[in-house]
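Regression report. Comparing outputs from two consecutive submissions.

Submission 1:
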Amino acid sequence: MTYSYSSIELYESCPWAFRKVKIDDIKRQTSEALETGRTVHDRIANYLERLIQTKTRTDWQWAEQKQLASGDSAAIWQLFVSNFTLPDMEAPGVENKLGFDQNWNPTGFFDPEVHFRGVIDFHFRQGDLAVVIDWKTNRKIPESVDKNLQLRTYGWAIKRAVYPDAQEVLLRLHFLRYGANRQVLLTPDDLAKVPDELDEKIARIEADKKFHPTPGSFCGWCGLTAHCPVMTQALVPVEILIPTTREQAEKAALLLLALQTLGKELTVRLKQWAQEYGPIKVGNLVYGLNPYASYTFDPQAVVQTLLEAGLDREVIWPLLSVSKTTLERGLKKLKRKDVLEQVLAEATGKTQQCPVRFLHERNSSGAKGRGGNYPESESHFGC
């Protein structure tokens, strides 16, 4: 068995998922977030290798030619190129693949004796200091980072295999969406016990013979839901979760319709339970009441306060956002829906594609099915 820190994390999140991926060699289903991360990491690696090879700080012309088409990845890539300058450095490495044997001696990444693997996004030296940069596409940035085992493993690996005489390791997490950094300075004392701590975690994995699933927050990231015994027993056979025929797709759509209704009902019932008996724990998640504050604003008073604070009217009006839904509801209460068409005619409109969801079927006259007499409570199925 070959390990990495991510595989150890996978086991700690769900032993069953670890077994499927590492032992049964089942591929995890990808997601938009994972694809964004891979795309951006690959593009940054190519850019860094070019800068190092040409000995230049930036190459915006090359980067512009390699601009991603659109979407999340394109925005992240553009922000990175606009703000990144290659630092003063020695002995840099990009996407460096490191391997270690069972005695934690450096070995080739693909050597037969490799026991633990890791990939370092970007590293270099500045005198006696080793610097490791890990690119993150997370949407959340922590206030600070601790010297946890994952970060210390990065630091230990780079010192052990690449810069053995470095005095300290600066580990920097760069959050690409925001151009923000969080970093920790790792001393030799911080790194001394890393192999022992990893050995302890690996021994726990190898002693496990059952690999039970552990439902919780990880289920949303698992990528193996269609194979999971907990999920399939709770819901439906695998062929419904991964439809391959129209009949299976129709059954999946019917299931989704039922689950939407059931979800609303369960929410009401669980809320009543939590109010009476307290929160419900499921794995590492807790279902309970979440207190929050709500406010009712007087629009005229808000505008007056903002004007007195020195804000211009042109800046204030966009803050007081009005949507078609809120406007329609308000005019309905005032029994003045006749004004709605006039307001919409003066507004700037645009057409967008609705996400895949249930839509009312319309007949040739444009009315909804069943004579157009759908109750208003069903309107959430449409755009």
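Submission 2:
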Amino acid sequence: MTDQPALWTLMVYMSGDNVLDNFAIESLKQLRDGAGKGVTVHYLFDPNYQDALPRIDSYDGNQKNTNASVFAGDATKKEGLAKALRGTNLRINTADPEVLTTFINSVTRPLHSPAGADDKNRHYGLILWGHGPELLLDADQPSKDRSGARVDGKYLTPAKLRLALKDAELPVRERPKAGLKPGEKAAGESFRKLDFIALDACSMSMVEVAAELQDYADFMIASQDDVPDQSFPYDKILSLLQNGGGARESCRQIPQEYKNAFQDYFPAPGPAVTNITLASLDLQNIKSITVPLKELAIELRRLAFSNEKARKAIIHARSASRDFVLGLFVDIDEFCLNLAKENLGNPLNSACERIHDALKAQDALILNNQTNEPDGKMRCHGLSIYLPYLTAEESKNIEESLTIGGTGLVTQVSKGGSTTNLHKSRAARIAETEKDLASLTRFNGETNWEDFIKYTWSYILAKEEPMELDLHYSAQQCMLNLLSLCEASSKSSGVAA
């Protein structure tokens, strides 16, 4: 039995920094100790500690001494790296999609070669480990890689992630042809896809991410809120995979294991206490959200440009909804529920109801959503979306939590607590996020959400709260968005801007 191929192949792509490096080591220990019995783990770890080199290796259960270094398998650090990237000239920068593609191919190519033909029962998972929602962010690194070449961004955007997966040699799978009679055999349609992608990073359970990944994985596992530095409970997850149950059932159970692992943790001090949340999604059902979301965006635009009452009602619904990451992302279900309470008409209510029903349907889009919120007060429903709005109360709470050493989300104010610095930092993040949003071709094609943010949401806030734009949103970003609307209107009408 030791010669049989593993039932699960996990690829773990890790980006550390001065805060996370040692937590990454603890995750690697759990992955090493849990490998075997049907689970093989391949990892790439890029630490940021002084001159530490990136590491690439694998665990297959043959590591007998669990007290030894997790890096004991390689004679030197350089040897392990060269082995996996032999034949390439790539330097390790985890924000480069080509590096992720090469890492995936270093695992999948040998399994698909004639000498190592893949077992049809093998499952594949990709775990992205690091900061979020600026995925695998390394803020301490300059905007150049180790070869001195300039890097476009310091994190892996959803568009870059999609590109990395598009170019990768993902496992070949086969879907049976529809309409076959009982007992009839016929070759199915071949396609390339992972069983799941898990994002061990904060606040990555977003419609934007799910829409971009739908062609490359069956399931996605991610949190709407912060992920503790201790990360996913890999010992429990690998034990779960070893016990079988298939990809769907395993993905369904992982959020519960995650919640159990942190159920005894105490909340951090300060007002900005985060929740333990984790959801598993069936990406094949993401259109149950994106289709009515497009209808919602169209109806919100019609209402916003028609009357003041509607604009105020939309702002009220957003301000009352659960949000994340300095108010940049909102729980899409709670936002829709609050919109429906504003009595803005049947077309809008219908779109909101369809989104709510899609999130609540059993065994559909949301396989499992776990949170440690009190019974009857659940506000994290599994999926967020970009819709920036920060209330005065939230701003005050964030400043207070940073002053006493809270979340550390905005390091610029961790020592001073300055309102000006807080909102400057937030405005910079908004500008980056909207640049990333513009590159999400699949998501925007299905939802028109970028147009909604640039034109409708900016217009609503500029009309109703012009003196508070830097508190709630960003005056600069609002101006840029509305100027682009004016320029587009001028071009279409043939009038100079």
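Expected: both submissions complete independently.
Actual: both completed, but the second showed a warning that disappeared on reload.
Relevant detail on submission 2: The first strand starts at residue 8 and ends at 15.
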